[in-house]
């Protein structure tokens, strides 16, 4: 099974870019609204979009992308400089990935109906 890490996100973004406008794609994917919060979807649709997120991921080392190496403040600053953004955007990306991983874990748990 594929791990939900930055490399996985990067692969998915490349696929999404080939498919067309992100808002149309999100609307067509079953369960996407359960995995991503409405706020995360709005951020994806708005400007700080795929290009900035891709630049942040590409500015990470391979170990950082695979979540093998923690991303502290100095690394966050380096990634932000490499992506042409600020470190708060990198922190937000980290939180989004954590949220997505938590939501995926919750979806896998058996429900006690």
- Percentage of residues assigned to helices: 55-70%
Strand content: under 5%
The CATH homologous superfamily name equals Signal recognition particle, SRP54 subunit, M-domain
CATH class: Mainly Alpha
What's the architecture in CATH terms?
Orthogonal Bundle
Distance between the termini: 26 Å
Mean pLDDT reading: 82
Tags for this entry?
113 residues, mainly alpha, 434 Repressor (Amino-terminal Domain), 70% helix
Q: What features would you describe in this structure?
A:
This protein starts with 5 loop residues before the first helix and ends in a 5-residue tail after the last helix. Helix content is 70%, strand content 0%. The chain has helices at 6-19, 22-28, 32-35, 38-45, 50-58, 62-65, 73-83, 87-108. The protein has 113 residues and is mainly α. The chain has one domain (6-107): Signal recognition particle, SRP54 subunit, M-domain (434 Repressor (Amino-terminal Domain)), CATH 1.10.260.30. Helix 1 (6-19) packs antiparallel against helix 5 (50-58), helix 5 (50-58) crosses helix 7 (73-83) and helix 7 crosses helix 8 (87-108).
Please outline the helices and strands.
Blueprint: H1 6-19, H2 22-28, H3 32-35, H4 38-45, H5 50-58, H6 62-65, H7 73-83, H8 87-108
Concise account of the structure shown:
By secondary structure, the protein is mainly α. It is about 70% helix and about 0% strand.
